[in-house]
Target: CAZy families GT35 protein
Amino acid sequence: MVKDYTRQYYAPAAQSLRRTVGTSSGAARFAPARELAAYRTRAQQAWPHIEITDVDSTGLPDIPLLGSKVTLTATVRLGGLRPDEVDVQAVLGRVDTNNSLVAPEIVPMTHTGTGEAGADVFVTTVPLPVAGSVGYTVRVLPHNA
Model:
């Protein structure tokens, strides 16, 4: 039991500390922590300005069949963040009677370039996880590598 606790909690916490402190000494010590703090500040300032301006789907048949491939394209204004500082994800699944997604599948979208007015374009092609009434949306999450 103590061994399990050590593996599940103490070891990951120690690894996280080493990543945050870094392995350098002197002025370089805690550089990863400073970089993380700077990212969090930038993300917090930019977040109110992030806007999904367009979501488009292509390839969807009139009657959605299980496994039919659909391409989703999202145009996103990142509010000053770089594309590698966010995760843009498509969320799709069956739609219930309340227009809610049931057991949605989350699929990462790939940055493909910059569109009109400097907005970034993200795309994914995914087989439909269900047949019938299918819905989708796009979300943006912060990401710090």
About this structure: The first strand starts at residue 51 and ends at 58. The domain at 50-142 is CATH 2.60.40.10 (Immunoglobulin-like).
